[in-house]
Amino acid sequence: MSTGTHSPRPLTRRSIDRLPSRRLTAYQGIGALLTQMLSQLAADTDLYKASDGPRLERVVIDLESAVLSHALDDVPPYW
């Protein structure tokens, strides 16, 4: 089984430049999932081993990518 970030469209510099005009929410959907993950990590830092860091980092990066991709889903390609 393979894991990793899959985005229907690459997160290019050009598409990311459009993000300031997009609404990103931390209260519902994927944004809420990222918020909950970060809150849990911050609240329970003593429960994680140093070796958990790289794995948790990958999860956070994947969730961040998902939030950004979701926000750009309805932006026309190649903007």
Please give the structural blueprint.
Layout: H1 13-16, H2 29-43, H3 52-72
The pLDDT mean sits at 81
Structural class: mainly alpha
Query: Which strand-content bin applies to the residues?
Result: under 5%
Rg (CA only): 14 Å
Indicate the percent of residues in helices: 40-55%
How far is it from the N-terminal to the C-terminal residue, by CA?
34 Å
Which segments are poorly predicted (pLDDT under 50) over 5 or more consecutive residues?
1-5
Q: What's the story with the biggest beta sheet?
A: none
Which of globular, elongated, flat, extended, rod-shaped describes the shape?
Answer: elongated
Number of strands: 0
- Count of folded domains: 1
H/E topology pattern: HHH
Polypeptide structure, described:
With 79 residues, this protein is an all-alpha fold. The chain has one domain (13-72). Helix content is 51%, strand content 0%. It is built from three helices and no strands. Helix 2 (29-43) packs antiparallel against helix 3. The protein starts with 12 loop residues before the first helix and ends in a 7-residue tail after the last helix. The model is unreliable at 1-5 (pLDDT under 50).
